[in-house]
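Hey, I'm writing a tutorial for new members on how sequence and structure tokens pair up, and I'd like a real worked example in the thread rather than a made-up one. If someone can provide the structure for the chain below, I'll link this post from the tutorial.
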Amino acid sequence: MFGIDVPIFAFSHCRDVVVEVSKAGGMGVLGMARMSPERLRRELAWIDSHIEGKPYGIDVLMPTTYQEAGDLKFDPDRLFPKEHLDFVRGLLDDAGVPPLPSADADAIVRELLSELSFTPAESARMLEIAMEHPIKLIVNALGSPPKALVDAAHAKGIKVAALAGRPKHALRHKENGCDFVIAVGTEAGGHTGSVTSMVLWPRIVDAVAPMPVLGAGGVGRGRQMAAALALGCEGVWCGSIWLKTIQSEVIPEIKARMFAADSDDAVLTRSVTGKPCRTLRCAFTDAYEKPGAPEPLPAPLQNILWWSEGRVRVERVRAPDFLTYPVGQIVGDMTQQSTVKDVVYEMMDELVEAQQRLSAMFE
């Protein structure tokens, strides 16, 4: 379908990871949900000039259910219930995380939120920009891509895929004209469902056959890739494993927390985005699990709350207890920094070893 050498698809918010995976024989896919339109233009232009003609794709968020923030997006006192504002602000105040400088606070928050795209309308604007570039794939990470989008992409020779956490979601993607489906087990980082990869992958493979399926959720090693292929998948979709690389966008302090984490430190919570999202455990996610905590707001309001009232303060001073980042349960295997190329080659080497081991068992 894409003329790639190895069936490894790499989701990343970092342009360097996208380029390095594609140059190593896989296919990089750039996540656009944390970019302004202006930044997206710069990132795609940079990718085009560095990827040496290799194929790459983009990933968008077009959720089926969400709450419109509208023009209130930058007015927290009108947008959020007082209970929620007091909870987040009080949490950080009590922990000694300093507030933003009053003279600069509004500008800092506005700049941060300008790079948040969550609604279908925001994603549609980003897609218009992306389709001006030689992308080969569009992936929708939340919900089924609209039929109009699929038709527009196909008219330009661009393939379309979508993530699915249940067979019924995969069937909806197939009905809407997707070219393949990404079956995402609950082990995955970011937005995910509740069914494990081992159970989910073969169910979705059977549900949409003969449509190709990629296995996602808990994939970062060659043996996990071998399992996906054995269960009927045509390849794998990986996101978390690239966070440990030199090329990753993750700040050193968050990388250090990941290297010290175990698999159960990747928690599934609605506290960050309003939808079930697996992220690195921190004081913020823990606070929402305690009695008396407010119920997280619907998406994207909870996401805007975290970005504007939490993340901007936390990352400005690198407050260690509150630092978090979406990551899957593979984080338990992420103990030291590596390069993108080494990750790809190590996965393929371990895949070959697994294949040889299985072959020897049946000789």
